[in-house]
């Protein structure tokens, strides 16, 4: 009995870790929305996030991987620099701009495109074969098509509003009449541009995942994350300074702005990355990806109850297509990995 209980607890540890990670990332989305609503610039917010991530990850990497870290070569630094662009400064700026133009639920749905985009990029770069004649190949192609269709529905089709029940809590403190007028005038343009930026962010993260697989065999995870954070912080700060030259916009007080950048940098980009690396060693990348839809559910509920976000038929239909596409790609990838193990 004790042995079975111990085995159950060991099985539950990665599951609970992933639930914790998704809740933490959902918190970032909500705080991003609150900070930008308070007037914080997206570029400055990303720059601060990367700075706090670097401050938290560099000591962690030095302590944990002091004896196991190989020499930092020019090739490793170059790969780390590319990782910081596609997985840090570029992807986060695109993601946050999409969040400002749309909603927290919208951008959370778009993150489920990443596995399909990764498969698409791997095909383009000839890192994977299409194998359309096999069930594995068909599953990945169908999953990619479903994900892209879902993204298009989410972007271009709104549909009727789903009225559940009203809540008086709205942390954005928008005036409802003014908000309705603004939405009616700009929502279609913002939705289209936000959708494009969301897809671009997913593609950037897909490139990051491909590069990450290359660097992971040469450099340990915490040191990789620290290197990426340092490079991304330099890139983001330079970009933000070039576009935002009013130093008053950089000031942080004891408010939601400071909470957002510290939480996003230390918790999301620091501690949760370390925890995700532990889960990856225990269960693998596919196990991590299978929890992405949980983020969408958490953010949708939080957005509805806390930010007065409206749910529409188009949002639910698009999110459903994307999630179905995600699991189709993951199923194909898992079968492919099992076949490789059997052949070996």
How would you describe this structure to a colleague?
The chain has 344 residues and is an all-alpha fold. It is built from 12 helices and no strands. About 3% of the residues have low confidence. It starts with a helix and ends with a helix.
Mean of residue pLDDT values:
81
What is the N-to-C order of secondary-structure elements (H for helix, E for strand)?
A: HHHHHHHHHHHH
SSE-based structural type: mainly alpha
User: What fraction strand?
Assistant: under 5%
Oligomer: single chain
Sheet with most strands = none
List the total number of helices.
Answer: 12
Helix amount = over 70%
The low-confidence runs, each spanning 5 or more residues with pLDDT under 50, are: 175-185
Distance between the termini: 36 Å
Count all strands and give the number: 0
Q: What is the overall shape?
A: globular
Compute the gyration radius: what is it?
A: 21 Å
Write a concise keyword list for the protein shown above.
mainly alpha, single chain, globular, about 350 residues, 12 helices
Task: Describe what is shown at a glance.
The chain is an all-alpha fold and 344 residues long. The protein has helices at 2-37, 42-64, 74-101, 104-110, 114-124, 135-156, 176-216, 221-243, 256-283, 285-289, 292-306, 313-343.
